[in-house]
Amino acid sequence: MDRSLLLNRASWDERAPLHAASRDYEVEVLVSQPEHLSETVRFDVPRLGDVRGLRTVHLQCHIGTDTVSLARLGAQVCGLDYSAASLLEARRLAERCGAAIEYFEADVYQAERVLPVSTFDLVYTGIGALCWLPRIEPWARTVAALLKPGGRLFLRDGHPMLMAVNEDHRDRLQLEYTYFEQESPTVWHTDQTYVESDQRLLQTETHEWNHGLGEVISALLANGLQLSSLVEHQSIPWEALPGQMDKGADGEWRLRQSPERLPLSYTLQAIKA
């Protein structure tokens, strides 16, 4: 594992207990309300469809709130993440919710070493995941390897156009970051995570990469998947552009003025031929 991934894994290890304790991830709500679904999965349901009985793997599952939600929809789901601390919280949550979920610790690129290949009906990747991967092609190769013929990828993520906008400008949309995948990461330094917390992080450096929409689709096509659906959304589940967005009753954030100017997230589905 290279330096970038080691830095990111250390950051997720430190964030995991903070996220599990925060109201944002609704851990206690999931435990106390057996029918409750995470906001992310609630948004996904209309496009996700009926997943009852589907053998499902949730890649980059973090603390497992979306994984538990998929299980509540009837999926036979397991989760994969490279952060041991995240998986500790995910296992605790599954146990408290009475959900039979098995979790595996591995980098996405190494998923074939711990998961059975060509066996999954559904590969699910929740929002905010792909930016932590240096290259999109080996991710697409992993997805193809895990799916059985006829199996489906379900991906919702932040739109790469949004990721190219500098969020520090509160009065305009200004493209300053790369849209296309680059070998060198964008390096961030902060002692705060993205949930409300008084605790400051010790692991303050993280590395991210953007992946253009065409690059994602091309990588999937090159690995034997066929695009079945692509929807661009004018909303995203966090305040991606502070000072320019309003939060709706559905928990999604949208541009306050002229939301049609910029796609904020997208849902992509593809079938293994």
UniProtKB/TrEMBL annotation:
Pfam families: Methyltransf_12. Residues 58-153 form the Methyltransferase type domain. One of its GO terms (biological process) is methylation. InterPro entries: Methyltransf_12 (IPR013217), SAM-dependent_MTases_sf (IPR029063). SUPFAM superfamilies: S-adenosyl-L-methionine-dependent methyltransferases. Keywords: Methyltransferase, Transferase. The keyword Transferase applies. One of its GO terms (molecular function) is methyltransferase activity. This is Class I SAM-dependent methyltransferase. It comes from Pseudomonas taiwanensis.
